[in-house]
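> forwarded from #structure-qc
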């Protein structure tokens, strides 16, 4: 049994590819922990927030990450910062807890392994069945005992004009934890940024709502679902009309479960006083059925060797 916990983390890479040089105390502060907490506790928090951890040691590098929370920008930066001569061994952890590691012969193979893990986590097989159906707004009072009707009325009263007080109104109606709020910045209409992701939106586990704010809506842990949902959102922002939809989808969660998922969504476009567009998406009548459970973890191919942490 080999331990690598004693090696201090040198670098953290965030979802935008920004590199932070850290020691134990700096890493704790960056992830919001007390500097008195252990390095391993800070590392696990960093991985849960979507960082990639990179540590160099003589003739090698240690890399730890959680594949379903990292981004392509972060992987590209990882490839750049590890492109150093003389790195003959990579110690890699992909479990998101830095508790299991595999030894890989060189950096190139390790980066390929990271790309493969990213693809498996974010674009898993089988290909997803994603369907959405638009309903007449007149049917809103028949869905979930009319729970969405007060939200639509609040939007109508506001005449599409966004006000931050809407957060409070959603909270009072009991809908805030089932709501996503997006922003399309005035300076970049290609972006669709997450402003709020309700804790009860499920699907991606408890960590995602904590780190989603500021990320692109399409870059969700499941990229197929993210692209599908972003396409619908962009159309709603272009139309500037409310929409009541029923989604029926089959896809794989980040936990590995294959589920069939049914949900009703009330999607409302807004305009701000400074020319930005916002979108709120409130869900109701959410149901899911587990079609397939994941097999026990297996050591991936490519000759990796598991070692203890």
């Amino acid at each position: 049994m080999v331990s690598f916990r004693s090696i201090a983390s040198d670098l953290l890479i965030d979802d935008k590819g920004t590199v932070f040089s850290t020691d134990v105390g700096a890493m704790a502060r960056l992830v919001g922990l007390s500097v008195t907490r252990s390095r391993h506790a800070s590392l696990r928090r960093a991985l849960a927030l979507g960082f990639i951890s990179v540590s160099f040691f003589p003739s090698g590098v240690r890399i730890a990450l959680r594949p379903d929370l990292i981004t392509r920008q972060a992987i590209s930066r990882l490839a750049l910062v590890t492109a150093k001569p003389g790195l003959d061994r990579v110690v890699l952890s992909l479990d998101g807890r830095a508790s299991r590691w595999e030894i890989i012969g060189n950096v190139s193979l390790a980066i390929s392994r990271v790309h493969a893990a990213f693809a498996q986590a974010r674009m898993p097989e089988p290909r997803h069945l994603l369907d959405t159906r638009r309903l007449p707004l007149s049917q809103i009072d028949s869905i979930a005992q009319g729970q969405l009707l007060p939200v639509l009325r609040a939007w109508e009263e506001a005449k599409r004009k966004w006000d931050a007080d809407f957060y409070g109104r959603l909270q009072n109606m009991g809908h805030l934890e089932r709501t996503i709020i997006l922003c399309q910045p005035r300076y970049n209409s290609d972006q669709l940024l997450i402003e709020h992701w309700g804790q009860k939106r499920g699907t991606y586990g408890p960590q995602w709502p904590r780190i989603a704010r500021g990320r692109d809506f399409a870059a969700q842990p499941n990229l197929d679902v993210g692209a599908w949902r972003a396409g619908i959102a962009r159309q709603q922002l272009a139309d500037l009309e409310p929409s009541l939809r029923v989604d029926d989808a089959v896809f794989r969660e980040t936990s590995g479960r294959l589920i069939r998922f049914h949900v009703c969504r009330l999607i409302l476009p807004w305009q701000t006083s400074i020319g930005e567009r916002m979108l709120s998406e409130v869900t109701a009548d959410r149901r899911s059925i587990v079609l397939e459970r994941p097999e026990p973890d297996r050591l991936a191919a490519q000759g990796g060797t598991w070692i203890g942490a």
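QC bot note: The mean pLDDT is 84. The longest strand covers residues 277-292.
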